[in-house]
Design brief:
Radius of gyration: 21 Å
Strand order of the largest sheet: 3-2-1-4-5-6-7
Structural class: alpha/beta
Shape: globular
Largest sheet: 7 strands, parallel
Helix content: 40-55%
Order of helices and strands: EHEHEHHHEHEHHEEHHEHEEHEHEHEHHH
Protein backbone atom coordinates (compact mmCIF):
# COMPACT_ATOMS: atom_id res chain seq x y z
CA UNK A 1 0.00 0.00 0.00
CA UNK A 2 1.27 3.46 -0.91
CA UNK A 3 0.31 6.86 0.43
CA UNK A 4 -0.69 9.09 -2.48
CA UNK A 5 -1.60 12.78 -2.34
CA UNK A 6 -3.66 14.49 -5.02
CA UNK A 7 -3.43 18.29 -5.16
CA UNK A 8 -5.99 20.28 -7.14
CA UNK A 9 -7.28 23.83 -7.45
CA UNK A 10 -10.29 24.98 -9.44
CA UNK A 11 -13.86 23.99 -10.23
CA UNK A 12 -15.48 20.56 -10.10
CA UNK A 13 -14.05 20.03 -13.57
CA UNK A 14 -10.62 20.05 -11.92
CA UNK A 15 -11.59 18.10 -8.81
CA UNK A 16 -13.62 15.28 -10.36
CA UNK A 17 -10.79 13.68 -12.39
CA UNK A 18 -8.69 13.52 -9.21
CA UNK A 19 -11.58 11.87 -7.38
CA UNK A 20 -11.87 9.37 -10.23
CA UNK A 21 -8.19 8.43 -9.86
CA UNK A 22 -8.43 8.39 -6.08
CA UNK A 23 -11.41 6.02 -6.05
CA UNK A 24 -9.69 3.59 -8.41
CA UNK A 25 -6.39 3.67 -6.50
CA UNK A 26 -8.24 3.25 -3.22
CA UNK A 27 -9.85 0.09 -4.64
CA UNK A 28 -6.33 -1.11 -5.44
CA UNK A 29 -5.39 -0.74 -1.78
CA UNK A 30 -3.69 2.63 -1.61
CA UNK A 31 -4.24 5.37 0.99
CA UNK A 32 -5.51 8.56 -0.63
CA UNK A 33 -5.33 12.18 0.51
CA UNK A 34 -6.80 15.01 -1.55
CA UNK A 35 -5.44 18.51 -0.96
CA UNK A 36 -7.97 21.09 -2.14
CA UNK A 37 -9.90 24.19 -1.17
CA UNK A 38 -12.10 23.98 1.92
CA UNK A 39 -15.10 24.38 -0.37
CA UNK A 40 -14.64 20.72 -1.39
CA UNK A 41 -14.00 19.23 2.05
CA UNK A 42 -17.39 17.51 2.36
CA UNK A 43 -17.28 16.10 -1.18
CA UNK A 44 -13.78 14.72 -0.66
CA UNK A 45 -14.45 13.22 2.75
CA UNK A 46 -17.74 11.73 1.54
CA UNK A 47 -15.75 10.02 -1.20
CA UNK A 48 -13.73 8.26 1.51
CA UNK A 49 -10.50 10.21 1.28
CA UNK A 50 -8.44 12.09 3.82
CA UNK A 51 -8.83 15.82 3.22
CA UNK A 52 -5.94 18.27 3.45
CA UNK A 53 -6.57 22.03 3.04
CA UNK A 54 -4.82 23.77 0.15
CA UNK A 55 -4.90 27.53 -0.28
CA UNK A 56 -6.32 29.66 -1.81
CA UNK A 57 -9.74 28.93 -0.30
CA UNK A 58 -12.25 30.38 -2.74
CA UNK A 59 -15.98 30.41 -2.18
CA UNK A 60 -17.74 29.47 -5.42
CA UNK A 61 -21.01 30.66 -3.89
CA UNK A 62 -19.61 34.18 -4.27
CA UNK A 63 -21.42 35.31 -7.41
CA UNK A 64 -19.24 38.36 -7.96
CA UNK A 65 -16.08 36.26 -7.78
CA UNK A 66 -17.63 33.70 -10.15
CA UNK A 67 -18.41 36.46 -12.65
CA UNK A 68 -14.85 37.75 -12.46
CA UNK A 69 -13.32 34.29 -12.94
CA UNK A 70 -15.63 33.50 -15.86
CA UNK A 71 -14.85 36.80 -17.59
CA UNK A 72 -13.56 35.83 -21.02
CA UNK A 73 -11.00 38.63 -21.16
CA UNK A 74 -9.77 38.98 -17.58
CA UNK A 75 -10.63 35.64 -15.94
CA UNK A 76 -7.24 33.88 -16.39
CA UNK A 77 -5.32 36.95 -15.23
CA UNK A 78 -7.51 37.35 -12.15
CA UNK A 79 -7.11 33.67 -11.26
CA UNK A 80 -3.35 33.52 -11.68
CA UNK A 81 -2.05 37.01 -10.93
CA UNK A 82 -4.56 38.20 -8.34
CA UNK A 83 -5.63 35.00 -6.56
CA UNK A 84 -3.05 32.22 -6.87
CA UNK A 85 0.29 34.05 -7.05
CA UNK A 86 -0.32 36.18 -3.92
CA UNK A 87 -0.92 32.94 -1.96
CA UNK A 88 2.00 30.89 -3.25
CA UNK A 89 3.74 30.65 0.14
CA UNK A 90 0.54 29.52 1.86
CA UNK A 91 -0.11 27.00 -0.89
CA UNK A 92 3.46 25.74 -0.57
CA UNK A 93 3.19 25.35 3.21
CA UNK A 94 -0.13 23.51 2.87
CA UNK A 95 1.19 21.12 0.26
CA UNK A 96 4.41 20.49 2.19
CA UNK A 97 2.24 19.43 5.14
CA UNK A 98 0.01 17.28 2.91
CA UNK A 99 2.89 15.30 1.36
CA UNK A 100 4.70 14.61 4.62
CA UNK A 101 5.12 10.84 4.85
CA UNK A 102 3.62 10.29 1.38
CA UNK A 103 5.14 8.13 -1.33
CA UNK A 104 3.96 10.20 -4.30
CA UNK A 105 1.86 13.20 -5.14
CA UNK A 106 -0.14 14.08 -8.24
CA UNK A 107 -0.83 17.72 -9.05
CA UNK A 108 -3.40 19.53 -11.14
CA UNK A 109 -2.81 22.25 -13.70
CA UNK A 110 -2.54 25.44 -11.61
CA UNK A 111 -0.87 24.03 -8.49
CA UNK A 112 2.11 26.21 -9.32
CA UNK A 113 4.09 25.24 -6.21
CA UNK A 114 4.20 21.53 -7.13
CA UNK A 115 7.67 21.61 -8.63
CA UNK A 116 8.97 23.60 -5.65
CA UNK A 117 7.60 20.99 -3.24
CA UNK A 118 9.31 18.27 -5.26
CA UNK A 119 12.62 20.16 -5.28
CA UNK A 120 12.48 20.68 -1.52
CA UNK A 121 11.41 17.16 -0.54
CA UNK A 122 12.60 14.88 -3.35
CA UNK A 123 9.19 13.16 -3.34
CA UNK A 124 8.04 11.45 -6.51
CA UNK A 125 5.71 13.74 -8.43
CA UNK A 126 3.33 13.27 -11.37
CA UNK A 127 1.81 16.32 -13.07
CA UNK A 128 -1.41 16.36 -15.08
CA UNK A 129 -3.26 18.33 -17.75
CA UNK A 130 -6.99 18.11 -18.38
CA UNK A 131 -7.25 19.96 -21.71
CA UNK A 132 -5.12 20.33 -24.86
CA UNK A 133 -4.64 24.07 -24.38
CA UNK A 134 -2.30 23.27 -21.46
CA UNK A 135 0.46 22.17 -23.84
CA UNK A 136 0.77 25.49 -25.74
CA UNK A 137 1.63 23.48 -28.85
CA UNK A 138 2.80 25.23 -32.00
CA UNK A 139 2.15 22.04 -34.00
CA UNK A 140 -1.48 21.87 -32.82
CA UNK A 141 -2.27 25.53 -32.00
CA UNK A 142 -4.97 26.26 -29.47
CA UNK A 143 -7.57 29.01 -29.39
CA UNK A 144 -6.78 31.22 -26.41
CA UNK A 145 -9.36 33.31 -24.51
CA UNK A 146 -10.24 36.61 -26.22
CA UNK A 147 -8.32 35.46 -29.33
CA UNK A 148 -10.89 33.28 -31.05
CA UNK A 149 -9.65 34.53 -34.44
CA UNK A 150 -6.55 32.37 -33.91
CA UNK A 151 -8.65 29.46 -35.18
CA UNK A 152 -8.36 30.97 -38.67
CA UNK A 153 -4.56 31.16 -38.35
CA UNK A 154 -4.10 27.44 -37.67
CA UNK A 155 -2.90 26.66 -41.23
CA UNK A 156 0.06 29.03 -40.88
CA UNK A 157 3.53 27.45 -40.42
CA UNK A 158 4.77 26.15 -37.07
CA UNK A 159 7.32 28.98 -36.95
CA UNK A 160 4.53 31.56 -36.92
CA UNK A 161 2.83 29.91 -33.96
CA UNK A 162 6.14 29.60 -32.09
CA UNK A 163 6.72 33.32 -32.55
CA UNK A 164 3.16 34.09 -31.48
CA UNK A 165 3.64 31.98 -28.37
CA UNK A 166 6.84 33.87 -27.48
CA UNK A 167 4.97 37.14 -27.87
CA UNK A 168 2.19 35.88 -25.58
CA UNK A 169 4.74 34.97 -22.91
CA UNK A 170 6.31 38.41 -23.18
CA UNK A 171 2.96 40.17 -22.70
CA UNK A 172 2.48 38.52 -19.28
CA UNK A 173 6.12 38.58 -18.14
CA UNK A 174 5.27 40.98 -15.29
CA UNK A 175 3.00 38.30 -13.75
CA UNK A 176 6.08 36.35 -12.66
CA UNK A 177 7.45 38.91 -10.18
CA UNK A 178 5.47 37.41 -7.29
CA UNK A 179 6.55 33.90 -8.26
CA UNK A 180 10.22 34.86 -8.36
CA UNK A 181 9.91 36.44 -4.91
CA UNK A 182 8.29 33.26 -3.58
CA UNK A 183 11.07 31.05 -4.99
CA UNK A 184 13.78 33.28 -3.49
CA UNK A 185 12.01 33.16 -0.14
CA UNK A 186 12.21 29.37 0.06
CA UNK A 187 15.80 29.20 -1.18
CA UNK A 188 15.18 28.05 -4.75
CA UNK A 189 16.28 29.56 -8.05
CA UNK A 190 13.94 32.21 -9.38
CA UNK A 191 14.85 31.15 -12.93
CA UNK A 192 11.82 28.91 -13.24
CA UNK A 193 8.60 29.13 -15.26
CA UNK A 194 5.55 27.54 -13.59
CA UNK A 195 3.04 28.35 -16.34
CA UNK A 196 4.66 27.36 -19.62
CA UNK A 197 7.90 25.37 -19.44
CA UNK A 198 8.51 24.37 -15.82
CA UNK A 199 5.10 23.18 -14.70
CA UNK A 200 5.36 19.51 -15.67
CA UNK A 201 7.10 16.65 -13.92
CA UNK A 202 10.29 15.19 -15.37
CA UNK A 203 9.14 11.83 -13.99
CA UNK A 204 5.74 11.61 -15.72
CA UNK A 205 3.05 13.89 -17.04
CA UNK A 206 -0.49 12.65 -17.68
CA UNK A 207 -2.59 14.16 -20.47
CA UNK A 208 -6.02 13.26 -19.10
CA UNK A 209 -8.13 13.94 -22.18
CA UNK A 210 -9.14 11.97 -25.25
CA UNK A 211 -7.25 11.73 -28.52
CA UNK A 212 -10.57 12.78 -30.04
CA UNK A 213 -9.75 16.31 -28.82
CA UNK A 214 -6.01 16.26 -29.48
CA UNK A 215 -3.24 13.79 -30.27
CA UNK A 216 0.38 13.92 -29.01
CA UNK A 217 2.56 16.49 -30.73
CA UNK A 218 6.35 16.84 -31.21
CA UNK A 219 6.45 19.82 -28.84
CA UNK A 220 4.52 18.19 -25.99
CA UNK A 221 6.38 17.83 -22.71
CA UNK A 222 8.25 14.55 -22.32
CA UNK A 223 7.56 12.10 -20.81
CA UNK A 224 3.79 12.46 -21.33
CA UNK A 225 1.24 9.65 -21.35
CA UNK A 226 -2.15 10.41 -22.88
CA UNK A 227 -4.72 8.46 -20.90
CA UNK A 228 -8.12 9.59 -22.13
CA UNK A 229 -10.71 11.28 -19.91
CA UNK A 230 -10.95 10.27 -16.25
CA UNK A 231 -14.66 10.47 -15.50
CA UNK A 232 -16.47 11.10 -12.24
CA UNK A 233 -19.73 12.94 -11.71
CA UNK A 234 -20.81 11.69 -8.31
CA UNK A 235 -22.85 8.80 -9.65
CA UNK A 236 -21.21 6.31 -7.32
CA UNK A 237 -22.43 8.21 -4.27
CA UNK A 238 -25.12 10.57 -5.57
CA UNK A 239 -26.21 8.63 -8.63
CA UNK A 240 -29.99 8.77 -8.50
CA UNK A 241 -31.75 10.93 -11.04
CA UNK A 242 -33.81 13.75 -9.51
CA UNK A 243 -37.43 12.97 -8.83
CA UNK A 244 -39.39 13.44 -12.02
CA UNK A 245 -36.46 13.45 -14.44
CA UNK A 246 -36.58 9.72 -15.21
CA UNK A 247 -40.31 10.03 -15.85
CA UNK A 248 -39.76 13.04 -18.12
CA UNK A 249 -37.04 11.26 -20.10
CA UNK A 250 -39.25 8.21 -20.59
CA UNK A 251 -42.30 10.23 -21.64
CA UNK A 252 -41.22 11.30 -25.12
CA UNK A 253 -38.48 11.91 -27.67
CA UNK A 254 -34.90 12.61 -26.50
CA UNK A 255 -34.74 16.19 -25.19
CA UNK A 256 -32.20 18.91 -25.72
CA UNK A 257 -30.20 19.25 -22.49
CA UNK A 258 -28.99 22.71 -21.45
CA UNK A 259 -26.29 23.07 -18.79
CA UNK A 260 -23.44 25.40 -17.78
CA UNK A 261 -21.37 22.88 -15.84
CA UNK A 262 -20.26 23.66 -12.30
CA UNK A 263 -18.52 27.06 -12.56
CA UNK A 264 -20.07 29.03 -15.43
CA UNK A 265 -23.49 28.25 -13.98
CA UNK A 266 -22.68 30.75 -11.22
CA UNK A 267 -22.83 33.50 -13.87
CA UNK A 268 -25.65 32.17 -16.02
CA UNK A 269 -27.20 35.55 -16.92
CA UNK A 270 -30.34 34.72 -18.93
CA UNK A 271 -28.98 31.51 -20.45
CA UNK A 272 -31.69 29.23 -19.08
CA UNK A 273 -34.57 31.56 -19.90
CA UNK A 274 -33.33 32.01 -23.47
CA UNK A 275 -32.74 28.26 -23.72
CA UNK A 276 -36.30 27.47 -22.71
CA UNK A 277 -37.52 29.87 -25.39
CA UNK A 278 -35.19 28.24 -27.94
CA UNK A 279 -36.70 24.84 -27.15
CA UNK A 280 -40.18 26.24 -27.66
CA UNK A 281 -39.21 27.82 -30.99
CA UNK A 282 -37.65 24.51 -32.04
CA UNK A 283 -40.72 22.59 -30.85
CA UNK A 284 -38.43 20.24 -28.93
CA UNK A 285 -38.55 18.84 -25.44
CA UNK A 286 -35.82 20.17 -23.17
CA UNK A 287 -34.13 19.62 -19.81
CA UNK A 288 -32.52 22.61 -18.08
CA UNK A 289 -29.90 21.66 -15.46
CA UNK A 290 -29.76 25.09 -13.84
CA UNK A 291 -27.49 24.54 -10.80
CA UNK A 292 -27.92 24.10 -7.07
CA UNK A 293 -27.53 27.82 -6.33
CA UNK A 294 -29.89 29.23 -8.95
CA UNK A 295 -33.64 29.60 -8.85
CA UNK A 296 -35.65 27.53 -11.34
CA UNK A 297 -36.14 29.34 -14.67
CA UNK A 298 -39.50 31.08 -14.88
CA UNK A 299 -40.62 29.74 -18.25
CA UNK A 300 -40.73 25.99 -17.59
CA UNK A 301 -43.59 24.01 -19.12
CA UNK A 302 -44.76 20.44 -19.67
CA UNK A 303 -42.17 20.12 -22.47
CA UNK A 304 -39.38 22.10 -20.78
CA UNK A 305 -38.35 20.64 -17.44
CA UNK A 306 -35.87 22.11 -14.97
CA UNK A 307 -33.68 20.37 -12.40
CA UNK A 308 -31.00 21.77 -10.12
CA UNK A 309 -28.70 18.78 -10.57
CA UNK A 310 -28.45 15.51 -12.46
CA UNK A 311 -25.48 13.19 -13.11
CA UNK A 312 -24.30 13.98 -16.62
CA UNK A 313 -23.36 10.35 -17.25
CA UNK A 314 -27.02 9.35 -16.87
CA UNK A 315 -28.67 12.29 -18.67
CA UNK A 316 -26.44 13.04 -21.66
CA UNK A 317 -26.84 9.63 -23.35
CA UNK A 318 -30.61 10.27 -23.33
CA UNK A 319 -30.25 13.65 -25.08
CA UNK A 320 -30.74 14.65 -28.69
CA UNK A 321 -28.15 17.40 -28.23
CA UNK A 322 -26.37 19.04 -25.28
CA UNK A 323 -25.94 22.82 -25.09
CA UNK A 324 -23.11 23.76 -22.72
CA UNK A 325 -20.23 26.10 -21.88
CA UNK A 326 -17.33 24.02 -23.19
CA UNK A 327 -15.57 23.19 -19.92
CA UNK A 328 -13.42 20.13 -20.52
CA UNK A 329 -15.29 18.02 -17.95
CA UNK A 330 -18.67 18.70 -19.52
CA UNK A 331 -17.20 18.38 -23.02
CA UNK A 332 -15.76 14.98 -22.17
CA UNK A 333 -19.09 13.75 -20.83
CA UNK A 334 -20.92 14.84 -24.02
CA UNK A 335 -18.27 13.22 -26.21
CA UNK A 336 -18.57 9.98 -24.26
CA UNK A 337 -22.37 10.05 -24.59
CA UNK A 338 -22.07 10.17 -28.38
CA UNK A 339 -24.44 13.10 -28.90
CA UNK A 340 -23.81 16.40 -30.70
CA UNK A 341 -23.13 19.71 -28.94
CA UNK A 342 -23.98 23.37 -29.20
CA UNK A 343 -21.25 25.18 -27.27
CA UNK A 344 -21.39 28.69 -25.81
CA UNK A 345 -17.88 29.21 -24.38
CA UNK A 346 -16.94 31.69 -21.66
CA UNK A 347 -13.13 31.80 -21.16
CA UNK A 348 -10.12 29.76 -19.99
CA UNK A 349 -9.94 26.49 -21.98
CA UNK A 350 -13.54 26.69 -23.19
CA UNK A 351 -13.05 28.53 -26.55
CA UNK A 352 -10.38 25.99 -27.49
CA UNK A 353 -12.45 22.97 -26.48
CA UNK A 354 -15.35 24.42 -28.47
CA UNK A 355 -13.19 25.00 -31.55
CA UNK A 356 -11.85 21.44 -31.38
CA UNK A 357 -15.34 19.96 -31.15
CA UNK A 358 -16.46 22.07 -34.10
CA UNK A 359 -13.38 21.02 -36.06
CA UNK A 360 -14.05 17.30 -35.63
CA UNK A 361 -17.65 17.72 -36.68
CA UNK A 362 -19.62 17.08 -33.50
CA UNK A 363 -20.57 20.64 -32.58
CA UNK A 364 -21.52 24.14 -33.57
CA UNK A 365 -20.42 27.19 -31.58
CA UNK A 366 -22.20 30.40 -30.64
CA UNK A 367 -20.60 33.25 -28.71
CA UNK A 368 -21.91 34.13 -25.29
CA UNK A 369 -22.85 37.66 -26.35
CA UNK A 370 -24.91 36.34 -29.28
CA UNK A 371 -26.71 33.62 -27.36
CA UNK A 372 -30.40 34.43 -27.76
CA UNK A 373 -33.38 32.13 -28.22
CA UNK A 374 -33.69 32.71 -31.97
CA UNK A 375 -29.96 32.19 -32.62
CA UNK A 376 -29.84 29.09 -30.41
CA UNK A 377 -32.90 27.65 -32.16
CA UNK A 378 -31.27 28.26 -35.55
CA UNK A 379 -28.05 26.50 -34.50
CA UNK A 380 -29.96 23.62 -32.93
CA UNK A 381 -31.98 23.25 -36.11
CA UNK A 382 -28.79 22.80 -38.13
CA UNK A 383 -27.43 20.23 -35.67
CA UNK A 384 -30.62 18.20 -35.41
CA UNK A 385 -31.50 18.23 -39.10
CA UNK A 386 -28.06 17.37 -40.48
CA UNK A 387 -27.37 13.71 -39.67
CA UNK A 388 -23.60 14.14 -39.94
CA UNK A 389 -23.44 15.70 -36.47
CA UNK A 390 -25.11 12.72 -34.81
CA UNK A 391 -23.21 10.17 -36.90
CA UNK A 392 -19.84 11.76 -36.09
CA UNK A 393 -20.75 12.09 -32.41
CA UNK A 394 -21.56 8.36 -32.24
CA UNK A 395 -18.22 7.53 -33.88
CA UNK A 396 -16.24 9.75 -31.51
CA UNK A 397 -18.16 8.47 -28.50
CA UNK A 398 -17.00 4.92 -29.26
CA UNK A 399 -13.39 6.12 -29.24
CA UNK A 400 -13.77 7.97 -25.92
CA UNK A 401 -15.43 4.97 -24.25
CA UNK A 402 -12.68 2.66 -25.49
CA UNK A 403 -9.87 4.65 -23.88
CA UNK A 404 -10.56 3.74 -20.21
CA UNK A 405 -8.69 6.81 -19.03
CA UNK A 406 -8.96 6.22 -15.29
CA UNK A 407 -7.54 2.69 -15.46
CA UNK A 408 -4.73 3.76 -17.80
CA UNK A 409 -3.77 6.66 -15.53
CA UNK A 410 -3.85 4.54 -12.39
CA UNK A 411 -1.70 1.86 -14.05
CA UNK A 412 0.83 4.60 -14.82
CA UNK A 413 0.75 5.86 -11.22
CA UNK A 414 1.42 2.36 -9.92
CA UNK A 415 4.22 1.91 -12.44
CA UNK A 416 5.93 5.02 -11.02
CA UNK A 417 5.44 3.70 -7.50
CA UNK A 418 7.04 0.39 -8.45
CA UNK A 419 10.15 1.93 -9.95
CA UNK A 420 13.33 1.45 -7.97
Amino acid sequence: MAKIVFATIGSLGDVHPMIALGLELKKRGHEITVAAMDFYREKIETSGFRFSPLRPHLDFNDRELARELMNARKGPEILIKDIIFPQLKGMFDDLMAAVEGADLFVSGEVVYVASSVQEKTGIRWISTSLAPISFFSAHDPSVYPTAELLEYLRPLPVGFHQALFKFMRWTISDWFDQYKKFRRGIGLSEDHDPIFFGKNSKLLHLAMFSKVLAKPQPDWHRPTLQTGFCFYDGQEYFGALPEGLQKFLDAGEPPIVFTLGSAAVMDARDFFEESAKAAEISKRRAVLIYGLFNDPPKNLSKNVAGFAYAPFSLVFPRAACVVHQGGVGTTGQVLRAGVPHLIMPYGHDQPDNAARCKRIGVARVVSRDLYRAERAAFELGKILKESRYKETAIEKGKIVRSEHGTAVACDAVEDVLNRK
